[in-house]
Amino acid sequence: MAATTAAWRAGSASGVRPRGIFTSARTFWLALAPALLFYTALTLYPMAQVIVSGFTDANGFTGDRDFVGLDNFTHMFTDDPALLDALGHTAVYSFFKVAVQTVVAFLIAVLLNKKMRGGNIYRAIFFAPIVISPVAVVFTWSFMFDPTNGSINTLLSDVGLGSLAQDWLGDYDLALYSVILVDMWSGLGFSVVIFLAGMSTIPAEITEAARVDGAGPLRTMWSITLPLLRNTTGLVLVLAINGALRAFDTVYLMTQGGPGDSTELYMTRLFDEGFVRNNFGYASSMALVVILVLIGIAWLQNRLNDEQRAGGRA
Predict the structure, then answer these.
(1) Distance (Å, rounded) from C-alpha 95 to C-alpha 240?
(2) Class of the 83-122+168-313 domain?
(3) What 3-state class would DSSP assign to 262?
(4) Cβ contact 269:77 at 8 Å
(5) End-to-end CA distance of the chain
(6) What is the pLDDT of residues 142-155, one digit of tens each?
(7) Domain boundaries defined on the chain
(8) Which of 154, 209, 226, 266 shows a CA-CA span of 20 to 30 A to 167?
(9) What is d(CA 243, CA 95) in angstroms, rounded to the nearest whole number?
């Protein structure tokens, strides 16, 4: 690289540019141009459109829009009770998706990390829901939740617990938690795999030394495994928060926000505003808030990782 830079500078000073370097740079940009074109057309341009529309009253596909400044954002958090309800549901959804799922995934990973007969089979079982189509997952669980012929109520009746049978997706108080259960079931395996990958990087000598010093399994997990999995845990949390804030497909396919608005989440509300009510400007402002929150979370995670690496070097 140094030799190439020196050659370029020498050629520039003499008024003659090295032909090979120029050709390589041109070839590089020509090869990169299609990817940049698609990225600009499919990502950057739509994102710019969302940002601009968030400050307007854009309505549907008519193209008519007027600049309204921060009115959309003000209305969002002060004069939209339906959105506030959706935010409350999203908070409950996020608690289970982030806190509960992360803890359960970590405990399962600890168990699977131990040498056991059939360990690979158990890993495959937990990871299997990840590779199943969301539509297939929703169809299967919707059939299981069916209040009349669903396998859950049928099983409860067969074991003498028919009194516990419920209309799982039709009950206003149960529908949200039923959907949360499905989403946790389908996403749990991914967190387990990430934790297992992190545990595989922990040197066996460290945990063995802890056992020799008399540390029990709980002490080893608390004092060694968890601290060494800080970056891994951060990654799992960031992905879980990302998934919770963007949760849409499972909820929309199973309940479409119902019954009533009991399962209405932030993203289903955004979809309703943009593509049902044609309030593109308002929906764009809602999308912009999510984008900013996700960028902030990613920035915070990167900063924590940088501080940890700096502390390790110190």
Answers:
(1) 10
(2) mainly alpha
(3) coil
(4) no
(5) 31
(6) 999 999 888 999 99
(7) 83-122+168-313
(8) 266
(9) 12
